[in-house]
Amino acid sequence: MSRRLTLSQRVAPVGGAWLVAGALLIGCGSSTTASPRPSSETTNDDSLLQSAVDRLVDGEGGDQLDRECVEAKFAALSDEALRLVNEAAPDSTDPRLGPISLQLLDCLDLAAGVSSIAAGGQPASAAGAVALPNPCDLLSPAELAPVFADLTEGTMSSASSVFGEASLCEWDTENGKSVSLLLYPQADLNAWAATSTDGDGISDGDPIEGVGDRAFVSRGDISFAAGPTLVMLHCFPTFDLDPEALAAIARVVDAKL
Predict the structure, then answer these.
(1) Neighbour tally for 142: CB within 10 Å
(2) Quick one: CA dihedral 20, 192, 225, 141, positive or negative?
(3) Do 185 and 129 form a contact (C-beta atoms < 8 A)?
(4) Helices 46-57 and 79-87 sit at what angle, rounded to 10 degrees?
(5) Per-residue pLDDT for 255 more than 90?
(6) CA-CA distance, 229 to 221, in Å (whole number)?
(7) How far is 194 from 205, CA to CA, in rounded Å?
(8) Out of 55-69, 132-146, 172-186, 219-233, which region has the weakest mean confidence (pLDDT)?
(9) For residue range 92-110, what is the model confidence (pLDDT) as tens digits?
(10) Residues 6+ apart with CB under 8 A from 154
(11) Measured distance CA(87)–CA(94) in Å, rounded
């Protein structure tokens, strides 16, 4: 998904405190993002991959994650990203880990600990601060069709990451594709901008104009600031997705906020 990630207001810690179920996961999580790399850059070190998977799934709360799903997500990461996972302290708040956790949204067993949040969409900790809509009301399967066809109606939950508390909506297909939209009403926008521009090759994005106040797009991910709110859109799998298609979807969301 070490990093800190929580679905709802509090879910049992996953993988040692650094993943508390969910992101961002939420940035379609989880911009984090340590997005899957092209095949030429993915890991060739099986021991590094297995160590990262074991550390996460066999850790405290790891029963909330599907092992095969985690293996598939981690297999798409670079060796550098896997080393980051293996070396992270249990209480790490390293912002580079947030995007990695976004990749694990699809691996969560939501029945293992997700609690519902207010119908308005924002986590309880954000209630009364910034009133945001239900993220599932911001996009329809038809509006997401430029990236993936045949998505189901969205399912709402909540999440938290190094960027703060978020409301989350996920759309899925029968063949495993997914889109996640996260709204962080009280995000640390400085941390987000830093991780998007620090050049570490893990969660970097390219600046893109015409979306929110500031926006970055990478493989399968786009995130932008709209006033104090951080919006993250994460798609899986990430390969061959058109950045302009992601930007068009992000503009739809921006116009509704």
Answers:
(1) 9
(2) negative
(3) yes
(4) 40
(5) yes
(6) 17
(7) 10
(8) 55-69
(9) 666 677 667 766 766 775 4
(10) 135, 136, 139, 169, 170, 171, 181
(11) 11
Q: Given the structure tokens 């092992």, which residue do they identify?
A: 67
Structure tokens of 35? 């997005």
Residue 128 above 80 pLDDT?
A: no
Nearest-10 Cα torsion for 247, 253, 254, 257: -170
Average pLDDT over residues 245-252: 96
Task: Quote the tokens at residue 38.
Answer: 């092209």
Question: What is the arrangement of strands in the sheet containing 206-207, beginning at the earlier edge strand?
Answer: 155-161, 164-172, 178-184, 229-236, 221-226, 214-218, 206-207
Among residues 88, 101, 89, which one has the least CA distance to residue 27? 101
How crowded is the C-beta side of 35, counted as CA atoms within 13 Å? 28
